[in-house]
Amino acid sequence: MAILILKDGKEKSVLLRHPWVFANAIREIRGHADPGDIVKIADKRGNILASGFYNPASSIRVRLFWWGNQTVPTSYFQTALNNAVKRRAPLAKASDTNAYRLVFSESDFLPGLIVDRYADVLVLQTLNPGMERLKETLAGHLMELLHPIAVIEKNDADTRKLEGLPVKRGILKGVAPDGPIEILENGHRFLVDLDGGQKTGFYLDQRENRALVARYAEGKTLLDAFSYTGGFSVYAAAAKATRLTRVDTSREALESGKRNLTINGLDAIQDEAIRGNVFQVLRGFRDRGRQFGMIVLDPPKLAATKAHRDRAIRGYKDINLLALKLLKPGGTLATFSCSGGIDADTFVRTLSWAAKDARREVQILHRLHQGPDHPVLLSFPEAAYLKGLFCRVL
Ligand code: SAH
After folding, report:
1. Is residue 190 part of a domain?
2. How far apart are CA 213 and CA 343, in angstroms?
3. In which region does residue 232 sit, left (phi positive, over 0), alpha (psi from -120 to 50) or beta (all else)?
4. Same domain membership, residue 83 and residue 226
5. Which atom of ligand 1 is nearest to the CA of 228?
6. Less CB within 10 Å around the terminal CB: N or C of the chain?
7. Given ligand 1 and candidates 200, 213, 223, 227, which is best to mutate, with the most ligand atoms within 8 Å of its CB?
8. Residues 208 and 300 placed together within one structural domain of the fold
9. Are residues 288 and 158 in the same domain?
10. Element (H or E) spanning 214, and its range?
11. From the candidates 296, 321, 338, 362, which is the catalytic residue?
């Protein structure tokens, strides 16, 4: 097994159990390693500190998952998978929810492995060559552990390209579901198209935030911007919101949102579905003086990395400024950023600039984040990608 020797001083983050070793932290490689091999990391004196997956194609050269000088046991991955599943036991027991994240990569000591449960189907992503090699084995363990009807591979994330992996989808184990499958989230039904859907088909990270929005929705008109398949809209309609305005660029997403309202018996609500760019649609609403009691702004990633940060901040400021202007006095805004390159403080500051330019006084009622099935290790704060603020405009 190859040993990678760190430059002087670069052992600190490894000792603090941060799981990423960047290329520029490495002084030399002793031995040969192929992409996806498990390698050991040593300090400048040769003391072995940790082990992880090697990938020469990525600037994150090694992804650590095992600390200490011992060799990674062959049972490691099965045990880590078991532990991740056990930690979700409270969710598994809930009778009103059957869709959640079972494995969240570094946070579950399985870097590059994402497993989502959608009722009887598991959807897996492997995001580096080390995990990629193990996917058949992992799918087999998941079949034994949870007896799903299928384990599907949805490996179409852009990050795979950065790791030198091809983009692909397919069945790893079991039998493919015929058409969309129905999931239950906090008692609400959703049809999830595992074939065509974005990400892994449904945004599981917003489960708790949707429930929070529902608490404030009664009697309100909701503008659900970037509505996708209507997650927030279904919750708000069920909580007696009076009217929905859903905005998305995707016609399929808007149609699927309508279907989700229907299967929950919420057809009767006034529901306006607008296919368009939120940035422009909100400007149009402002010009026509339209007002809402509640707005949800849940845009896709505007900055994947720090490089796109400035442009992303301008984007967030723009839509939040418009949203604040569209709220009735006392109205509420649930605003999100899932950009890894924007931290929570930056997001708050961006909102405060938006409020100043919109000339609105704004109170933060709740700080929001991804649900507990997407945990964040203290040693790996980068996993906290979803940030949100629930605010009231005075
Ligand atoms: N709130 C949703 C998830 C939103 S995902 C939920 O709870 O499920 C982001 C959505 O934004 C996608 O559906 C995508 O089609 C849409 N989108 C991306 N850019 C857009 C734009 N400029 N205007 C409108 N919709 C956009």
Report:
1. no
2. 22
3. alpha
4. no
5. 13
6. C
7. 227
8. yes
9. no
10. helix 207-215
11. 338
In this structure, which residue's CA is closest to atom 11 in ligand 1? 226
Domain presence at residue 195? no
- Name every protein residue with a CB atom under 6 angstroms from any ligand 1 atom: 203, 206, 226-229, 231-232, 247-250, 253, 277-279, 298, 300
> Are residues 294 and 168 part of one domain?
no
Q: Distance from first CA to last CA of the chain, Å, rounded?
A: 62
Helix (H) or strand (E) segment spanning residue 222: strand 221-225
Sequence-distant (6+) residues with CB within 8 A of 265 are none
Segments in the chain below pLDDT 50:
199
Residue 338 known to be catalytic: yes
Instruction: Write the single-letter amino acid at 170.
Output: G
* Model confidence pLDDT, tens digit, residues 260-287: 999 999 999 999 999 999 999 999 999 9
State how many domains the chain has: 3
The confidence score (pLDDT) of residue 199 equals 47
Say how many Å lie between the CA of residue 98 and the centre of ligand 1: 23
State whether 140 and 173 are in the same domain.
yes
Amino acid at 7: K
pLDDT for the residue numbered 198: 52
Same-domain check for residues 175 and 240: no
Q: What is the extent of the structural domain holding 24?
A: 3-67
Helix 207-215 × helix 231-238 angle, to 10°: 30
Judge if 117 and 251 occupy the same domain: no
